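Whiteboard transcription, Tuesday session. T.W. wrote the C-alpha cells on the left side:
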C-alpha cells in the first residue's frame, strides 16, 4: 500500500462524491422502489464511501484497465534499442493534481480533525439537551397505539414545537403541549403511530450512528449529502409503515398537515428521530399522495444486496482510472534552483534501488520518481512511474521535447539518481561500505562532507565510527565533519549517540558544541558532558558555559556540574560573574554553598562571585546558606563579615551579623573592614 492516509482521504473526497452522484441519479429515476429499499441502499452507499480508501487496495480482478502492458524495466545499457520508443510508449495515467509534498494533505487532515472535534462537541450538547427535555417533560395520559419491544413513555413538553421520538436505553415520545391541545384524538393517534414506528424500527440508534459518522467525516461532502438523503428516506419509510398499519392514507395525511400548520419553523434537534422541518413535511405529503409510488414498508433484500455488489464492482473496476483524476503527493522532494539551473528530485512510494544507486530495482503500483536537471528554461527530465496494473513507464525529455529512453537517458538516470540518493537516508550502511572499499576512511569522509542533508550526514558519520576502528586522526576529522552539520538537532543527536567514542577528546567535542547556536541544545549537551569531564578540561568547559546567552541555561549547567571537588568548584565558580541575573547567581551560589570546600581557590572564586550580586537580599541569602556549613575556617568567617559590611541596607547587615559565629579575630576584621 503506497498511498498515505492523508492522500487516501484526499482521493476519497472526489471518488465518494462521484459515487454518491451516480447513486442519486439512479434512485431519482427508480420511483418504483420503496422508501425502505432506498434507505437501505443509501446506508450501503455510505459504508462504501467510508471504506473507499481500503476498498481501493483490495486485489480484485479488473475487467478493464487504463493502460496497455509496457516494458517492466529499462533495456540494459549494452543493448540500446535502435528504434524510437517515444511514440510507442503510452502516456502514463497521472493525477489531475499532484501535490509537491504531503504537507497540503496533512494540513487538510489536521483541519478535518478540528472540524470533527467541533461536530462531536455539538452532538454531545444535543444529547444533553434531549436528556434535559426528557427530564423536564410531564407524563401524558397517552400510550403508544402499538405494542413495542421496548417500554416507551409518552410525555408532554413545552420546550419543543414538533413531535419527536427520543430513544436509547429509556425511549420516550415527546409531544408539544400546544399540538396535543389542538389535534383531534384520531389525528393524535396517527402522530403517535408515526413516532412509534421510529422506535419500532430502531431509528433512534440508527440516527445516533449516522450522526457520529457525519461528525467524524464532516469534511466529506459525500457523507453530508448521503446524510440528508438518509433523513428524508427514513421519514418516508416511517410514513409508509404508518399507512400500511392503518390501511388508509387520508387520515394520516390530514394529521401530518395539521402538525405542519401548528409547528414553529424551528430547526430539528440533531439526535431526535421523527422531528423534521416543516418544508420536509410538505414534500412527504406530496410523495404520500402519489399513487404510483411504491409504499411497501420493508426493504427489498435482493435489490439492496445487488446494489451493494454493484457498488463494490464499480469501485474495484475504477481503481486504475482513479489516478487519472486523483491527487498525487510525494513524500520526498528536494529542489535546488539558483535561477539559472534547476535540479529536482521527487519520490512517491516504497521504491527499491539497485546496489550501485544507478537504477530502480522494484516499484510497487502507484509509485513515481521524477528527476529534473539542467537549464531552468529547458531542463532534462525523467519520469518513472509504476502503473496501477504493476507495469512501469519511463518517459525522458530534453528541453520539453520527448526523447527515446536510450543510453543517454540511462546515463542521466545513473548520474542524477546516485547524486540524490547519497543525500537520502536509504541504504546508508551499504553505500558507506562501497566508499570505504573504494578509498578507505579518508575517501569516505570526503564523500560524507559533500552530503547536504544533515540527517543523512549524521547517519553516515555514526555508521563510519561503527565500521572503522577509531584512531585519533579519524576521531578529530569526524568531529570536524560533524561541526559542518547545520541542524542543531542533528548535531546534538550525533554527539549524544557517539559520546562514548569521544572520551578523552573533550576539547574538540566542546568546540563542536560551541558551534550550536541554540542555547537549549547546548545546555543539554554540556549538562550531559559535565559528569564525565576530567579536571584538566574544566577551564575549557567553563568557557563554553560562558558563551551561552541565557542566564537560566548557564545556571542550570552549573547546578548540574558543581561537585564537592575543590578544583571543580574553583573552575566553575569563575563563570558565575558572567550571569547577569541576581536571582540565577544566587541559585548557583546557594547550591555551591552546600558543597563548599574551605580552601583558598574556592574561597576566592566564591566571594568574587558573591560581590557581583547587586541585590542585598540575594547576597544575604547566599551568605546565610554558607554560614549553615559546619566548621568554617576563620578566613571564611572573616570574608563573610567583610561581605556583610558591604550590604547597603542596615537591616540586611544586622540580620547577617547576628548569625556570625564568635571569632577571636572577628572584631579586628570588622575594624579592618571599616
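and on the right, the sequence the group agreed on:
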Amino acid at each position: 500500500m503506497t498511498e498515505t492516509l492523508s492522500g487516501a482521504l484526499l482521493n476519497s473526497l472526489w471518488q465518494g462524491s462521484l459515487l454518491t452522484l451516480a447513486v442519486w441519479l439512479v434512485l431519482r429515476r427508480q420511483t418504483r422502489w420503496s422508501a425502505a429499499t432506498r434507505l437501505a441502499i443509501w446506508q450501503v452507499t455510505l459504508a462504501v464511501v467510508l471504506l473507499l480508501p481500503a476498498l481501493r487496495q483490495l486485489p480484485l480482478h479488473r475487467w478493464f484497465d487504463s493502460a496497455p502492458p509496457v516494458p517492466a524495466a529499462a533495456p540494459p545499457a549494452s543493448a540500446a534499442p535502435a528504434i524510437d520508443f517515444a511514440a510507442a510508449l503510452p502516456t502514463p495515467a497521472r493525477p489531475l493534481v499532484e501535490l509537491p509534498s504531503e504537507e497540503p494533505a496533512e494540513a487538510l487532515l489536521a483541519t478535518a480533525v478540528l472540524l470533527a472535534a467541533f461536530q462531536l462537541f455539538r452532538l454531545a450538547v444535543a444529547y444533553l439537551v434531549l436528556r434535559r427535555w426528557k427530564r423536564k417533560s410531564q407524563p401524558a395520559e397517552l400510550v403508544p397505539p402499538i405494542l413495542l419491544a421496548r417500554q416507551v413513555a409518552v410525555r408532554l413538553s413545552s420546550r419543543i414545537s414538533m413531535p419527536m421520538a427520543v430513544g436509547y436505553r429509556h425511549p420516550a415520545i415527546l409531544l408539544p403541549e400546544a399540538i396535543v391541545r389542538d389535534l383531534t384524538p384520531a389525528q393524535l393517534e396517527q402522530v403517535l403511530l408515526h413516532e412509534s414506528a421510529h422506535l419500532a424500527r430502531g431509528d433512534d440508534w440508527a440516527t445516533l450512528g449516522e450522526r457520529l459518522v457525519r461528525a467524524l467525516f464532516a469534511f466529506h461532502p459525500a457523507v453530508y449529502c448521503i446524510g440528508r438523503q438518509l433523513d428524508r428516506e427514513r421519514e418516508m419509510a416511517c410514513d409508509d409503515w404508518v399507512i400500511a398499519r392503518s390501511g388508509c392514507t387520508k387520515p394520516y395525511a390530514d394529521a401530518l398537515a395539521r402538525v405542519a400548520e401548528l409547528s414553529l419553523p424551528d430547526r430539528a434537534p440533531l439526535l431526535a428521530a421523527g422531528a423534521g422541518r416543516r418544508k420536509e413535511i410538505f414534500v412527504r405529503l406530496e410523495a404520500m399522495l402519489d399513487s404510483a409510488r411504491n409504499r411497501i414498508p420493508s426493504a427489498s433484500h435482493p435489490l439492496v444486496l445487488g446494489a451493494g455488489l454493484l457498488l463494490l464492482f464499480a469501485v474495484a473496476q475504477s481503481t486504475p482510472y482513479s489516478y487519472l483524476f486523483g491527487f498525487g503527493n510525494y513524500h520526498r522532494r528536494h529542489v535546488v534552483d539558483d535561477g539559472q539551473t534547476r535540479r529536482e528530485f521527487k519520490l512517491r512510494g516504497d521504491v527499491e534501488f539497485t546496489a550501485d544507486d544507478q537504477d530502480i530495482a522494484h516499484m510497487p503500483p502507484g509509485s513515481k520518481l521524477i528527476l529534473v536537471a539542467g537549464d531552468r528554461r529547458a531542463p532534462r527530465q525523467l519520469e518513472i512511474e509504476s502503473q496501477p496494473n504493476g507495469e512501469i513507464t519511463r518517459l525522458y525529455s530534453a528541453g520539453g521535447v520527448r526523447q527515446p529512453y536510450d543510453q543517454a537517458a540511462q546515463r542521466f538516470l545513473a548520474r542524477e539518481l546516485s547524486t540524490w540518493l547519497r543525500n537520502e537516508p536509504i541504504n546508508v550502511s551499504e553505500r558507506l561500505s562501497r566508499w570505504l572499499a573504494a578509498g578507505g576512511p579518508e575517501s569516505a569522509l570526503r564523500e560524507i562532507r559533500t552530503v547536504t542533508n544533515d540527517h543523512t550526514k549524521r547517519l553516515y558519520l555514526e555508521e563510519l565510527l561503527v565500521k572503522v576502528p577509531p584512531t585519533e586522526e579519524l576521531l578529530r576529522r569526524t568531529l570536524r565533519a560533524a561541526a559542518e552539520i547545520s541542524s542543531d538537532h542533528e548535531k546534538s543527536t550525533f554527539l549524544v549517540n557517539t559520546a562514548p567514542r569521544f572520551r578523552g577528546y573533550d576539547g574538540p567535542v566542546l568546540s563542536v558544541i560551541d558551534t550550536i547556536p541554540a542555547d537549549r541544545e547546548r545546555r543539554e549537551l554540556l549538562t550531559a558532558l559535565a559528569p564525565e569531564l576530567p579536571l584538566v578540561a574544566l577551564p575549557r568547559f567553563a568557557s563554553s558555559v560562558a558563551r551561552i546567552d541565557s542566564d537560566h541555561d548557564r545556571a542550570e549547567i552549573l547546578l548540574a556540574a558543581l561537585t564537592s571537588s575543590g578544583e571543580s568548584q574553583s573552575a566553575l565558580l569563575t563563570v558565575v560573574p558572567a550571569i547577569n541575573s541576581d536571582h540565577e547567581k544566587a541559585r548557583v551560589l546557594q547550591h555551591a554553598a552546600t558543597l563548599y570546600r574551605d580552601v583558598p581557590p574556592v574561597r576566592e572564586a566564591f566571594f568574587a562571585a558573591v560581590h557581583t550580586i547587586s541585590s542585598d537580599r540575594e547576597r544575604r541569602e547566599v551568605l546565610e546558606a554558607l554560614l549553615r556549613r559546619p566548621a568554617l575556617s576563620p578566613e571564611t568567617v572573616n570574608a563573610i563579615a567583610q561581605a556583610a559590611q558591604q550590604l547597603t541596607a542596615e537591616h540586611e547587615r544586622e540580620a547577617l551579623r547576628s548569625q556570625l559565629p564568635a571569632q577571636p579575630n572577628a572584631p579586628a576584621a570588622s575594624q579592618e573592614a571599616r
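Someone added at the bottom: Confidence is low (pLDDT under 50) at residues 60-94, 664-674.
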